[in-house]
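Two records follow; treat each independently.
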Amino acid sequence: MLELTTTRANPMVDPSLQVWGWEIPVYLFLGGLVAGMMILSGYLLFSGRHQAHGSSTAFVPALSFVLLSLGMAALFLDLEHRAFVWRLYTTFEPASPMSWGSWILILVYPALAAALLVRPPAPLVRRSPRLATLSGRLLDRPGWPRAVGVASIVLGVLLGIYTGVLLSALGARPLWASGLLGPLFLVSGLSTAAALVHLLAGDPQERVLFARADNVFLGIELLLLGLFLVGLLSATEVHARAARLLLDGPFGALFWVGVVGLGILIPLGVQIAAVRHRVQHTPVAPLLVLGGGLLLRYVFVAAGQLSHWSPP
């Protein structure tokens, strides 16, 4: 989809060399967040936990629909040729990550609608009682929630990986030239999703479940970040120079303090103490995780645009 960006782009310049603003980091963050929420709600549906009173499956699909639409709106604002967006859906290019992403995003909406029908939010039911009737008929089929759960998990994984592959497919930026970006952005999306559900869930058991899950995701995210940087530093001088943009370059403070410190280490420590009942659960840790996830996308997008194959 990036062939259509940006509003500041020169049409004679390679799209992978364009300069992006705030819209792309927001789009990547919200896309990853929704991907993680789909995977987590898919797990609840597949395991039957959606039947618990106060389960987050009552609000996650509707909230995901809103957040994904906001992300798409941010991307649309960044497009240069907005009137031609429809052309993305008149063809499919198997070798193009942008084409894959366009169609994945289209498939996500029906999956969210199906998940919403499993347990419609109370405000929607009050507005449309027929929604509850339709949901009841679908739930008469025992395999329906499990099938919706599997579809949510599969599409969530594809969407989460796509948000990283979108950058790594642009070979003109050495900072993004890593196959770890897809898994990194997927795990980061899972972490932010677990943090958000932990923050909003009405079921105390679910809050503990997702706090524990977020601790695992944060640990994996930290490991992948380390492997990503080691991979760049052990490659060519160009890749090492790109890594130093994050380590001790112009984005060093944002990366170490914002992404690693405030976005991973501090909330990880707080949540480990909380699940061990040493401190009370606090909204501070999930909010830090969400802020760190957004900052991660901003730092990678902004620093990547400063990395070049040619000597400085």
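The next record belongs to a different protein.
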Amino acid sequence: MEFQDYIDAFSHLHVNKKQGKLAPHKAVMLLSVIDLVEDGTLQSNVILINDRLKEQFRKNWDRFVGDSSVFNCQFSNTFAHLSSDPLWTLHPLNVNSIPKEFSIGKLRECYSSAEISEELFEALKDKNHCAHLRAVLIGKYICQLFE
């Protein structure tokens, strides 16, 4: 994919809409992944279900969304449901059925990790590309919460 394709994909995430607002969950998760790439925590395109990612998601939720009367902070569901977008591929474990709602325990029971493309991972390591993708996410999914 070309970089413009990633901009388009980030701009057109499959999200729920509630009370006229786009759900910010996937944007917050992707912002968290960007943060972990930037600080060197995430060193490959495989995204593990771990406490560091969960903490960064919570930190970004508090920073960008806060105490919303419309949306709740939902790390596990967001991690799983990002697979409805072409950016995010889940690595399932050997399970018979995948639930629609996830606790952190159920998420870890069903999936080992997620993966983004190597090209996207490389783009996230580039400061200019990273800043552009961050701006797209904040502009489309975060700013609209406060309009």
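Discussion point: The longest helix spans residues 127-142. How would you locate this feature using only the token line?
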